[in-house]
Amino acid sequence: MDTFPLTVGSVTRALPVVRVSPTRSIPLIEMLGDFELTNAVADELAKLIPLETEMLFTVETSGVALGHAVAERLNLPYKVARRHRRSYFKNPLIQEVEGMTLGVHDTLWLDGRHAEQLVGKRVSILADVVVSGSTNASLAKLVERAGGIVLGYYSGFVQGEPTIPVNYVYRLPTQLEGTPV
Amino acid sequence: MDTFPLTVGSVTRALPVVRVSPTRSIPLIEMLGDFELTNAVADELAKLIPLETEMLFTVETSGVALGHAVAERLNLPYKVARRHRRSYFKNPLIQEVEGMTLGVHDTLWLDGRHAEQLVGKRVSILADVVVSGSTNASLAKLVERAGGIVLGYYSGFVQGEPTIPVNYVYRLPTQLEGTPV
To answer: Buried b / exposed e across B56-74, counting CB within 10 Å, b at 16+?
Structure first.
């Protein structure tokens, strides 16, 4: 099997299958660069977001276009946590992500200018794909540290068994039969 | 002066003014997280893109939502160069960016799966802000190495004197009077 069929709304894609270990292959979901798939997922994901949401929060890079598309559907502001420091940040919040592998850490950054706008706001955490949930749990910590209230986690796809409760549009397999190309 | 007024289409924003050196302050344009401004810029930028364009090409992160929005307006595919290697890349093209400061380099990555789709295609390079033009010149090199044809450079904003010919919606100042906060 070299592709995996996916249908979301009226959009159909043949996802490439990639080998992630000698014995394991998974379909690769990539919405970046695909505005039709992004919009189809955003249509479905927007329906899951609680009505009381005042702000959406996601992380670069793959979440950006989806964040934009869901934000415009719900007419809500969205914020994007960064994975690297930018020179213009002012009093940024810095949050470690605990990786699956002991000792491996990513870092999330939220410019203080944006953190200020989260104070007292009801925030829905948005993702394109959730695997372990560790990045999204760190996004929630950023919201809370900024003074916002986390309503929940909302993702286009789940591919794994996240440690957080995620509302999602579509579940992708984590093990495919057959041999990838 | 602590903000700089910007109007694009029907959208008005007060851009924060940031100090970039002891004697120089500039307005900070940030479209990431602002779907209304992104869409307003995309409306104008889409008008500048040549009709013969078959594909759009931009770079993460700030170009992603604009790429999505212009792509959907023109019903064109878009591709996104990455600034870091991803584990699932297959035969990626790697392109150095020559920075303004001697010896400082960024690196752009294009997954081989996406590079294949540029072969023989007429490509317009898309940016949110062009300053020196070095990143966009490297995007053009990636297109050519992948076998595509570069039609030109198209940007929401220009803020500086790029070394490449850029078609843009709005020019931002590189030096503001007064004292930033």
So the answer is: bbbbbbbbbbbbbbbbbbb
Task: Using CB atoms, pick whichever of B20, B39, B67 lies closest to residue A72.
Answer: B39
DSSP letter at B118 equals: G
In a domain, B156, yes or no: yes
ipTM for the complex shown: 0.92
Whole-prediction pTM? 0.93
The per-residue pLDDT for B22 is: 86
The DSSP code for B83 is: S
Count up the domains in chain A and report the number: 1
A94: domain CATH number? 3.40.50.2020
For residue A78, the SS3 value is strand
Q: Which residues of B touch A64 (CB under 8 A)?
A: 32, 60-61, 64-65
Distance, in Å, from the CA atom of A102 to the CA atom of B150, rounded to the nearest integer, reads 45
- Over residues B30-62, the pLDDT tens digits come to 999 999 999 999 999 999 999 999 999 999 998
Structural domain containing residue A120:
34-171
Q: At what angle do helices A35-48 and B63-74 cross, to 10 degrees?
A: 110
B25 part of a folded domain: no
Grouping H, G, I as helix, E, B as strand and the rest as coil, residue B114 is helix
Backbone angles phi, psi at A113, to 5 degrees: -60, -35
In a domain, A15, yes or no: no
Q: Phi/psi zone of residue B98: left (φ > 0), alpha (ψ -120 to 50 degrees), beta?
A: beta
Tokens 């903000």 map to which residue? Answer: B3
Contact check, Cβ <8 Å, A64/B65: yes
**Separation between Cα atoms, residue A52 and residue A127, nearest integer Å:** 19
Q: Of A126, A161, A141, A134, which Cα lies nearest the Cα of A50?
A: A126
> B92 with B122: CB under 8 angstroms?
no
- Residue B67's contacts (CB-CB under 8 Å, 6 or more residues apart) are A33, A65, B56, B58, B78, B80, B126
Chain B residues contacting A, CB < 8 Å? 16, 18, 20, 28, 32-35, 38-39, 60-61, 64-65, 67-69, 71-72, 77-80, 82, 87-88, 90, 113-114
In a domain? residue A25: no
